[in-house]
Each structure stands twice: as structure tokens, then as C-alpha cells.
């Protein structure tokens, strides 16, 4: 499947910026089942300082904000070719050892509510993958998908106990917290998801991956109750949201007034040009209230709109993902697996 993506982020400041620096993780990975056909990133009100691969093999670009501007725009356009690997990424790569994904972080550290959730999950006699799907289902039942009740700073334990539901970021953090508590390495994934009912979206998506013996890294989209399929594009991975956030940064001399995101993801026929697919787009504006007038922390979160009415019912897709993953386990160990 060829997916055409347009992702534009605009920052508006209350007054001219004296200095600003942004860390961007907006370039899709070239990894198992995913290939970048074309990808460009442009700036208005900022410029690229340098780029590098971080400890998770995420492509990171540091962008300096032009002095005196009151608006910064970062635009990404491209096409990514994806394949159905039943959510199996395969072998571990990156500069962090596998055991690093067993340690909890401030966002994933479990408390009594998560431990209670873990105790309620049924262990499957069919193996670890079905058990992890059971965990995914238990999380979604306990924390239904609902926007507005959590923030990018909400921890996994807080999301479980708040009773306000949560979004994909919360679901991923809860899954990671529980998996690590069971001595299963787990990590956070940020990326894109093509929705079935619309092109325009309001935010990027997030899900989790767990290390399963014999398969390697396997993806679980808790918000949608399935393993990732060709509609998914992996962009960044990490121990939690902070390692994989699309945009983070600081500015001096100004407070961010608005963060506006325009995002469109659609399937592209092989003979279509990229320009033909760059139409439409949604927008979302959110108030930035953290920090003071001298220093402002900025971040673009993962609102994660679930994909409505997947082609396969979640339970059926889970069975398909398990059987396909086991069938192709040897093949999945070959090639990049960042």
C-alpha cells in the first residue's frame, strides 16, 4: 500500500521570539514492512541546524527558530510504501540494549491500579501474543477512548485511575507499564494511521510494541484493538512518549499562544503523482499553558483518533495477526527492525 501524507504544524507566539530550538522526529523509519518513497520537510520562520539518528534510530532534526518571528510552520510531505506483516517488526536494533525497555519511566511507572489491571488479564495457553492481546482488550475496557480527559503529561497510573478515559498515548503507556511489569520489553511508537472514513485528521497516532521470543518486536494498537496493518506508518520509537514525541522544544522571549496541526493521510495509486494526493486536511488548535514568559516548553502530542470500522473485526484481526506472525517469524528476523 502506498500512503500519501501531509503533516503541517504551526506555532503562533504572543510576541516576537528571541531564541528557540525545536527537536523534530517527523521522518518515517525505513524498517521491516515500510519503505520511504519520498519525504520532504520545509520550514517557515525556522531553519535546520543539524540532523542525527538518536539512540532509538529515530531521525532527529534540530531546527532553530528565526529571531523576531511570531509564527513558525513545519511542513512534511511524502509517500511511504507499506506491507502487511501482521504487526511483526522483527529483530531489535538501535543503540539501546533490549533490557533498557524493561525499565519503567516516570510516565509508565505502575501503581496499585495498574497492578490490579494486570491481575485481571487472562493468560492464554496459546502463547504470549494472545495474552498481550488480552491485555490490550483489558486496557481499552478499563480506559475507553475519550479525548479531553488527559494531557501529554498524564502518567499511565493516572490515566487508569482518573475515570475519564484516555487517548492512544495513554493506552500505549498503560500497555508498556503492564508489559514491563511482566518482564516483557515494551516500547512506545508514534506515527501515522490512514483512517477508513476520512483523509483529514487532527493528530498523529500512537501504539505500543512488545518483544516476543521467536518473533521479535510485535505491534499492538490498543485504541483500535488490533495489530498494525498496512495503514500504519512508524515514525519514531522510544521508552515512552518523551522519546518519540513528534515535536518538542524551547523558546525564550515569547509564550506559545497556539499550536495548530493539519494532517492528511490517504492511499495513493502507484501511478499517482504526489502532488495529486496533497489535498484536504484537518486542523486542531490547542492552548499552550506550560512555562513562563521567559521559557516555554512546546510539544505536539498524539491525539490518536481511532480508525473507525476496521475491515476485519478486532477479534478476527487478532487471530489473523497471531497466525501470520507465527507463520512468518523466521522471515521477520531479517532486515532492519528499528
Overview of the structural elements:
The chain has 338 residues and is of the alpha+beta class. It is built from seven helices and 16 strands. It folds into two domains: 2-81 and 244-300, Immunoglobulin-like (Sandwich), CATH 2.60.40.2250; 84-243 and 305-332, C8orf32 fold. It has helices at residues 112-119, 128-142, 156-162, 168-181, 241-244, 314-327, 329-332; strands spanning 2-13, 19-24, 34-44, 46-53, 59-65, 71-82, 88-90, 186-193, 200-201, 205-212, 216-220, 232-238, 247-252, 256-267, 282-286, 296-300. The strands form three sheets. Strands 1, 3, 6, 9, 14 and 15 form a six-stranded antiparallel β-sheet that branches. β10 and β11 form a beta hairpin. α1 (112-119) crosses α4, α2 (128-142) crosses α4 and α3 (156-162) crosses α4 (168-181). 46% of the residues are buried.
Amino acid at each position: 500500500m502506498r500512503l500519501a501524507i501531509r503533516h503541517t504544524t504551526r506555532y503562533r507566539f504572543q510576541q516576537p521570539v528571541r531564541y528557540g530550538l525545536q527537536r523534530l522526529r517527523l521522518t518515517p523509519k525505513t524498517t521491516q514492512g515500510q519503505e520511504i518513497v519520498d519525504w520532504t520537510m520545509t520550514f517557515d520562520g525556522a531553519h535546520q541546524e543539524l540532523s542525527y539518528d538518536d539512540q532509538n534510530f529515530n531521525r532527529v532534526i534540530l531546527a532553530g527558530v528565526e529571531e523576531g518571528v511570531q509564527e513558525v510552520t513545519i511542513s512534511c510531505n511524502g509517500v511511504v510504501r507499506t506491507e502487511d506483516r501482521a504487526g511483526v517488526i522483527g529483530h531489535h536494533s538501535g543503540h539501546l540494549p533490549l533490557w533498557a525497555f524493561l525499565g519503567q519511566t516516570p510516565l509508565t511507572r505502575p501503581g496499585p491500579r495498574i497492578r490490579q489491571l494486570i491481575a485481571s488479564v487472562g493468560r492464554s495457553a496459546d502463547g504470549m501474543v494472545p495474552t498481550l492481546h488480552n491485555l490490550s482488550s483489558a486496557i481499552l475496557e478499563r480506559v475507553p477512548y475519550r479525548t479531553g480527559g488527559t494531557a501529554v503529561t498524564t502518567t499511565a497510573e493516572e490515566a487508569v485511575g482518573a475515570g475519564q478515559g484516555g487517548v492512544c498515548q495513554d493506552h500505549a503507556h498503560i500497555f508498556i507499564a503492564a508489559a514491563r511489569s511482566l518482564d516483557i520489553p515494551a516500547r512506545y511508537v508514534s506515527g501515522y494511521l490512514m483512517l477508513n472514513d476520512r483523509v483529514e485528521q487532527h493528530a498523529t497516532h500512537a501504539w505500543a510494541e512488545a518483544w516476543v521470543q521467536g518473533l521479535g518486536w510485535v505491534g499492538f494498537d490498543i485504541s483500535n484493538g488490533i495489530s498494525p496493518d498496512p495503514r500504519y506508518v512508524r515514525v519514531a520509537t522510544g521508552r515512552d512518549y518523551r522519546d518519540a514525541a513528534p515535536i518538542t522544544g524551547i523558546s525564550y522571549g515569547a509564550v506559545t499562544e497556539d499550536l495548530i496541526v493539519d494532517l492528511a493521510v490517504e492511499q495513493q495509486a502507484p501511478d499517482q503523482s504526489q502532488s495529486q494526493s496533497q489535498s484536504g486536511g484537518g486542523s486542531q488548535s490547542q492552548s499552550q499553558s506550560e512555562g513562563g514568559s521567559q521559557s516555554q516548553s512546546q510539544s505536539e502530542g498524539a491525539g490518536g483518533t481511532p480508525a473507525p470500522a476496521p475491515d476485519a473485526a478486532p477479534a478476527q484481526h487478532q487471530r489473523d495477526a497471531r497466525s501470520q506472525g507465527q507463520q512468518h517469524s523466521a522471515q521477520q528476523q531479517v532486515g532492519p527492525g528499528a
